[in-house]
Amino acid sequence: MTAGFMCLSRAASFKDKRECYSGPDNVAYVILPAFFKLLLKSRLLFKLFSRIYFAKGLYEYVITRTKYFDAVFTEALKHEFDQILIFGAGYDSRALRFSELNKGTSIFELDAPVTQKEKLKAYQSKKLVIPNNLVFIPIDFNREKLEDKIRQAGFTAGKQSLFLLEGITMYLSQNAIESTFRFISDVSGKGSMIVFDYIYGGVLRRENKYYGEKGMYKRVAKVGEEWTFALEENEAESFLSEYDFTVKDHRSSNELEDRYFRNSKGQIVGKVNGTHAIVTAIKN
Predict the structure, then answer these.
(1) CB-CB contact of 194 with 244 (8 Å)
(2) CA separation (Å) from 226 to 146, 165, 220, 229?
(3) Which residues of 235-250 are buried (b: 16+ CB within 10 A; e: fewer)?
(4) Which of 18, 187, 190, 191 has the most Cβ atoms closer than 10 angstroms to its Cβ?
């Protein structure tokens, strides 16, 4: 459900012609089911749909996150990183959208078999060309070891790599977080990067101090995917240091809003949901 929701949001942004709202994910729109394409054709219907299913500022947050992660992804390609590993890839389309920038970086998409199967089916039905350097890794985390799966797929430890965890950390347990980040630390070479978003500890405690926070509780409850992990507002640096990573960039919702929703006249034209932040870090 979350993967489908993200695809719809990115497709909506691609068709949204408002300044700052227009997004880059043309693939999301191509693979979107016909019913939702009809929904996007009517601004009134989409606005009504958004009020029911989107928390305040969530659509804007997805737009900022997509653009932010795109920037980190293309930076890794331009610097010719050896590998990119995308956790819980869902309908991520960056391997297709930025294929012309790729000079030899191997891209691995890691996800549950059911989600990955649906994605491949959508690609095939739309006759989308899958790059030769893109490898799909279906994994059942309850039965299979991550290390074994990526090694069998051709991922090599110790190389300069980028790790993407988009919309992932908040759904993991503390143990899963520790094992995932320890794994990333162990297999990443010097100069590797990690980019992820997270929710604040106050959100889990339901302190209701962030813009759009109450609406996020309702949305999470609707899809039945409970949030379980968070970091405090000033905790990211110490958290990452435990895994030998140094923070390169750390953006709050207000900072994302200032970067991506300030128009040509200098005005803020969109309010971003305040429950999340995004971090990029480099391996020491």
Answers:
(1) no
(2) 23, 17, 6, 10
(3) ebeebbeebbbeeeeb
(4) 187
Cβ proximity of 219 and 54 under 8 Å: yes
CA angle centred on 275, ends 265 and 178, rounded to 5°: 130
The residue ranges of every structural domain in the chain are 57-283
For residue 28, the surrounding DSSP H or E stretch is helix 26-31
The arrangement of secondary structure in 57-283, i.e. its CATH architecture, is: 3-Layer(aba) Sandwich (3.40)
Tens of pLDDT, residue by residue over 39-83, are 888 877 777 877 777 889 999 999 999 999 999 999 999 999 999
User: Which of 156, 119, 113 lies closest to 28, judged by CA?
Assistant: 119
Angle, helices 174-187 vs 146-153, to 10°: value is 40
Instruction: Answer yes or no: is pLDDT of 150 > 80.
Output: yes
| Beta strands across the sheet bearing 83-87 | 134-138, 106-111, 83-87, 161-165, 193-199, 276-283, 245-252
CB 89 within 8 A of CB 111: yes
Average pLDDT over residues 181-190: 96
Q: What is the mean pLDDT of residues 156-167?
A: 97
* Residues 178-191, mean pLDDT to the nearest whole number: 96
**Residues in the chain, total:** 284
